[in-house]
User: Fold these one by one.
Assistant:
Number 1:
Amino acid sequence: MADFDPAEDELTPPPEGTGAISAHMTPDRQASHFKRARHARETEIIEDYVELIADLIDEQGEARAVDIAKRLGVTGATVNKMVARLKQMNLVNAEPYRSVFLTDEGREMAEASRERHHIVVALLRVVGVDEATAWADAEGMEHRCSPETLMAFKEFVKRHKS
Amino acid sequence: MADFDPAEDELTPPPEGTGAISAHMTPDRQASHFKRARHARETEIIEDYVELIADLIDEQGEARAVDIAKRLGVTGATVNKMVARLKQMNLVNAEPYRSVFLTDEGREMAEASRERHHIVVALLRVVGVDEATAWADAEGMEHRCSPETLMAFKEFVKRHKS
DNA sequence: TATAAAAGTTAGCCTTGACTAATAATTGTA
DNA sequence: TACAATTATTAGTCAAGGCTAACTTTTATA
């Protein structure tokens, strides 16, 4: 978690051939894409936890470790460790043997994440992906879309739905 | 790398509310989405390496560790370790102090990966994402699309490109 | 052809995010 | 209320994928 420097992350202009290098796709620009991807991998787990905690609170009034574990398909021990990390990041409040709550910051992240999730699902639906697949694939794609892409998705969906 | 069992990966039908649980989105179905996502995270690095090696071979006739490192934005030591792993997976052939070559299996993976990459870029372009952003975002999204979604993208692009 | 520069290798360390197993606390119920 | 079941915590392990530093091999050039 210390690999991605937004300052050096200039968006890379397109190559011309197969996906290969060109005058525009220099090695270090390509490197910045990969750094961006690595950074996304690191943050998406955090976002998944936070979004799920928000869902549980909304549905059941509280987010218990055991439910988080069940829905993520991991063990309670893993959840416990992760919650400690989220707490340290000031995304959740958690006391021993009590369920987990979101801080303002955490809720903000959850909302943002959830909105992205929905936009991606909507876009997939519009381009013809069936609903089940859309929900399955959105889990993952949502973390890799820049604000620009999400905005484009939103606009596109608005213009094309129904 | 031993978490995802395709056998239990039934696609999850959609929920109805905010993204929350419903009769269709049972906890273990949601868990399978997250397992799928974790699996994708594990394989995408492999795919990035393999695709990049293919690019380098096509462009320069060979893939040297130093060039791989430069384009991925990692150190040579990291590349070395990863190449050893790729070799063990029978995706590349590599001899000490020589550059890296793809096995048939590796080239197959590279082609598939590259094709997915291009489809995603094309889809993004069609829905209005600018070219630079499309290339940046495709790095990452390409690994998270199911065959169904890619097929839908392909069809959609075919129907909509100017 | 020496020798310096570049590239590759190896060893050792770190963090993340999983796991299991053992233990402790809480909760529900007979 | 006591006890059983559920839930949470802690400790220790593992593999992946990064890193740096030291060293070796190859390549290029003075």
Number 2:
Amino acid sequence: MNISDVASSTGLPVKTIRYYEDIGLIAPARSANGYRQFSDSDLHKLAFIGRARSLGFGIDACRDLLRLYNDQKRASADVKKLAKSHLGEIDRKIAELGQMRATLSHLIDACAGNDRPDCPILADLAADHDHA
Amino acid sequence: MNISDVASSTGLPVKTIRYYEDIGLIAPARSANGYRQFSDSDLHKLAFIGRARSLGFGIDACRDLLRLYNDQKRASADVKKLAKSHLGEIDRKIAELGQMRATLSHLIDACAGNDRPDCPILADLAADHDHA
DNA sequence: TCTTGACCTTCCAGTAACTGGAGGCCTTAT
DNA sequence: ATAAGGCCTCCAGTTACTGGAAGGTCAAGA
């Protein structure tokens, strides 16, 4: 299988697949002309990584997940721990964004949005929020 | 005012303040020895930027907000438009993270988390989610 | 056979917004 | 005089790609 076939069957961009080889996530064989030749195993790995990335796991976490996946003697506790830690990160981000959302949405509601210069949004940004 | 004073009163790291000068957000004066000399206006600008950043606005949006802030003839509609667009971005991110959270949390609940290798999390990652 | 177009390759640079560190001058206090 | 600490610049690294240039390869049609 050539790279563009792999791209269309995994949904990953060609560039991304090359990048994943670069950083050592996969190591596809090469044919005589220098083209990458992807095995089913490469394909599965890439699909696995793509799925993990879509759940927000970082590249290093993907590496760990792949290692655990290939380890027949793994303990599911290790996987769960990794996933829980990632869930914590997600929750932290959601909380942060939720906080931003609340403040911003409040300010937007307070803003007339007309051709006058008075603006509660700018007023808030300029106000003293005290970091001292 | 020297840079570390500004850092402690704005809550921004010294490195970040230098960076903001680098990219043209501020242009503090220099004293004879080459040290940056921050005016009250510089200080206010930095506080403004810091606040905008804490609401998740990107650097370019900060530049726009600062420009609007300094424009006495601005229309609040322009500020509101910018803020609304940013709110949309935030909502998009929250939705994406919420989706991840839901899936991941479901998988975590299904995982025994013991010393056995069976793991619904890995099973899901390895499963065919069909991008073809 | 030649050419054209779609592949494939590598390498370099850029993205967002900093952050860390090296090497070195300036200031202040002992 | 010296040591500590603040300031300076410049370079490199971070995350996870993405775009583009320059060039080799392959299959099909005229």
Number 3:
Amino acid sequence: MAQQLTRNQSLVLDALTHAEGPLSAYTILDKLRDHGFRAPLQVYRALDKLLEFGMIHRLESMNSFVACSHPDHHHHDHGVTAFAICEDCGQVTEMHDAGIEERLSVLAGREHFKTEKTTIEIRGHCQNCTSG
Amino acid sequence: MAQQLTRNQSLVLDALTHAEGPLSAYTILDKLRDHGFRAPLQVYRALDKLLEFGMIHRLESMNSFVACSHPDHHHHDHGVTAFAICEDCGQVTEMHDAGIEERLSVLAGREHFKTEKTTIEIRGHCQNCTSG
DNA sequence: ATCAATTGCGTTATGCTATAACGTGTGGCA
DNA sequence: TGCCACACGTTATAGCATAACGCAATTGAT
């Protein structure tokens, strides 16, 4: 069941998995130069596939990428994802909530809008950075 | 009460108000060349102010901007905004829903996360483009 | 009135993000 | 064997955003 990844895809996924927070494509490129990466497209192509497989997420509000925090059940098993992004430490928390999905579904339905992909990103400050 | 805009800010706001859909900063620049605009910063500086005034919104998922559809009550009077973005015709619908705000508030609270700004963008197909 | 602080403006240069377009190599398979 | 699909590598280019500089106009306190 687990998707068989190519070498480039594995390298990019590893970089994201081991990172503290989200990484931009060019940051990934720099991290992988020692492994033979030389051009942005090598990263973007791998990212596209990993997104397709549901193994990583793209954070639209900061043009960067994170490994999915539910590595067990890939493939878009989980519905809408909301991200809490700390502007101080960069930490990203992945959240799921049926209530939100329900409300979004109602909103879209009211407009007769056919949803393909939903982005929810909350910018703010995480517990650690607030308590200090 | 209405914010007094500078010439550049007015021009940018007009461009967005009269546009069919969202515009990128560089598209705005091109539209305003006849009015003396020559550099991206002229656009970005105006956009920053208009965002600050709550007169326009930034669509993170497409790096572009739209005029707020509630021009009456500026200044962030309305809470969280969700955008339905049609991938066929580019039309953007602005939506508000207390239920979503409530759920997001609960989610954030559960993580002890202090929310500064929330982005909700739904990509898909609008009624017109679906029915055809 | 004047000085200082703020704000907007214009320009040049630069950096970051993403994709187009081309060709190569490999593995599966009729 | 010939075809197809796919991943890959490379070069070039397009699209998005900001840094850093200096000037001009405004405000507002003294």
Number 4:
Amino acid sequence: MNEQRYNAIIADDHAIVRAGLKDALEKPGLIEPDGICVLAEAGDGLSAIAEVRKHRPDLLLLDVSMPMAGGVEVLVEARRWSKETRVVVLTGISAVGLVSDLVEAGVDGLFSKASDNSEFYRKLPGILRGQRHISEHFQKILEETPRPPVLTDRERQTLNMILSGRSNKEIAEGFGISIKTVDKHRTSLMQKLKVHSVPQLIARALKEGLIDPSKEL
Amino acid sequence: MNEQRYNAIIADDHAIVRAGLKDALEKPGLIEPDGICVLAEAGDGLSAIAEVRKHRPDLLLLDVSMPMAGGVEVLVEARRWSKETRVVVLTGISAVGLVSDLVEAGVDGLFSKASDNSEFYRKLPGILRGQRHISEHFQKILEETPRPPVLTDRERQTLNMILSGRSNKEIAEGFGISIKTVDKHRTSLMQKLKVHSVPQLIARALKEGLIDPSKEL
DNA sequence: TGCAGACTGGGGGATCTGCCCCATGGTGCC
DNA sequence: GGCACCATGGGGCAGATCCCCCAGTCTGCA
């Protein structure tokens, strides 16, 4: 079983988090008897993908909110280039949409940044050997929270335009379609999300994590 | 100079960040020759204040986005109970409003979570001995970014209502004033923020950090 | 082959917004 | 006292919204 040390890549936009994770992974006896070798670190989604392509590591430790590319995108891209890499996501966000997206995309491990680290330390060895573990915190969310409505492509695009402050007319010009069509998409959105105005739509979208709030900040 | 080891309290809502910071502070030679003694950790603003009252540490290492109470509130409360405690804030948010609030509240150190840790490690000893250091990244923001306009009380209240999805009519009913007055406040807000619609207003407010996005999530 | 669903587009109308006009009080400041 | 500023409230109006109605095309699926 111990024919070699496992190796890993850490991706998080905060240097302090990377340092903490690196320490924990490398420390002999904490997770693995000999520690886990950290091959590289990445501060944004694109370089995370690049590092995975280069090193094809046993493990990719991933944050969801990163510049350039976020959780799910990085996950599927990493899988494309390195099928054997186990992908474990650490996140501070508990929005249902994000969590279910990650689980459906086939993430191997999902842990909350807020909760205690011990669960993460305990489960990681099993994940490296092929098991899968979704933190109880997220399992509860997936069970309890009603699945948010499925948005079509155009609806999602429209929603993002609305969230960045565009009016119907501007969106119509941007997409090269009629105002009435944009109006239709917006109306469908509001029906699905059970709101009755743009301000409510925005408030709801932010709370549900239907869009990526990181890129705004 | 080395009559005793410095001690500190760490406040951050993410256990991994706390672990990383604890490691760095305690490691002899990295920041202090003998390391810094971590007296306690806190996962939210209220317990952070409680721990400061109990231990009156030399240093409070603080995150801005925490449950129960955020950066500036914790800072001023900590000062009230322990005037000698040096308060150093680590943040991932670069919104001008937040940064200038912290600086004006008299924070002793301000560093970005995203940037390299070495600056933090290098400057902390000086801060413990009475110096003050605002990361260049934030200094640049303070200089370059025009100070966001000063909002009146009613304007700020109105803004928060708008951001939580209320219409003019709902806000008027909530405040017990006329729709026209709400309209007036909203119009003033939009003039000050140089936008021309509620969606733009929300997008701008989120980007500028004029309001607290943490309580939404 | 049909059929559901997404995307497209238009008509119409009640309502709300965005922004101009106006006026009345209160407060703080020189 | 005058002046600036805030908060209050009203009239009015062009334009945008919210939400009905309608219909065509195209794609994927049973």
